[in-house]
Amino acid sequence: MSKGCWRMISAVRRARPAIAHFHDPELLPWAFLLRLSGIKVIYDVHEDVPRQVRHNPTLPAWLRPFLPAAVSLTEWVGARVVSGLVAATPEIAARFPDRKTALVQNYPMIGELHVPNTTPMAERPREFAYVGGIGTDRGSIQMIRALDLLAEAALLNIAGTFALEREQARAEAEPGWTHVRFLGFKGRNEVANLLSRARGGLVLFQPLPNNIAGRPNKLFEYMSAGLPVIASDYPRWREIVEGAGCGLLVDPQSPEAIAGAMQWILDNPDEAQAMGERGRQAILNQYNWDGEADKLVGFYRALLGSRVEKH
């Protein structure tokens, strides 16, 4: 957070771009130096960071109670220094000044994660998928325990990395780990192929404030791949899943409820396939990057006062 930030800021100042667009909140104090250098700065906010840091297991426990206020103050000051802000959800956008904030939601690109698969759901292997960061806050333990409750064995393919070694050790100590295929980090093409073979995608974030208010990327990625989803039953998630008719909502703290949803998908392949198709249609019609890219390019044009090409 010190040497790394200084190296980044130094590299940007040498490059002299018209705009520096960054995501990490720890870079906010450095934004003032870039503004003094005549560079326009965009702070790209994907999380409710003040809520997130209170429950971040990678931070020292003694420090977490004090961080939300410090982060809120940093964002408040930073929002008045930067040239503009990009927020990933309406709830995040509401925390920042309207006049300099653009809502650009992180929906998938059409076709990026969709690999056409003519194999009916009933003939696919009994496999589910989880893709992304792994940890107890993402429901790793509940997912693994649910595997042990199924009437007939099924496999969970996990593609991603654990935030902490101790959380990986805890997951591997679970009896249900024998039903997990841990793949580590995978590129987008490999993820697309993995999802094309699965029966369903799991997104079971635990009930922490930032999770409840968020809209996880992987939910839309599973929908884009044509998979039925098994998701945490939170109001904002319910609007998406029930609105599209693309999956099942469960108590993310209950392995029994998760296992019941997995069993339903295994026992009802035709209905599960229809759910997946409805989810993909929702991506094609609404939750895709095309419209969001237009908003982002328009925001850049307004900041630069000149024409910007979309790529």
Describe this protein's structure.
This protein has 14 helices and ten strands. By secondary structure, it is of the alpha/beta class. Helix content is 46%, strand content 14%. The chain has helices spanning 3-15, 28-36, 49-54, 67-81, 90-93, 140-147, 165-172, 188-197, 209-213, 217-224, 235-244, 255-267, 269-285, 289-304; strands at 19-22, 40-45, 84-87, 101-103, 127-131, 155-159, 180-184, 200-203, 229-232, 247-250. α1 (3-15) runs parallel beside α2 (28-36) and α10 packs across α13 (269-285). The strands form two sheets. It has a six-stranded parallel sheet with strand order 7-6-5-8-9-10, with helices on both faces. A four-stranded parallel sheet has the order 1-2-3-4, with helices on both faces.
Measure the end-to-end span: 32 Å
How much of the residues is beta strand, in percent? 5-15%
Major β-sheet profile: 6 strands, parallel
Shape: globular
Spans of at least 5 consecutive residues with low confidence: none
Counting DSSP E segments of at least 2 residues, the number of strands comes to: 10
Mean pLDDT figure: 92
As laid out across the biggest beta sheet, the strand order is 7-6-5-8-9-10
Order of helices and strands: HEHEHHEHEEHEHEHEHHEHEHHH
Give the number of helices: 14
In terms of quaternary structure, what is this? single chain
Rg value: 21 Å
- In terms of structural class, how would the helical and strand content be classed? alpha/beta
Helix content: 40-55%
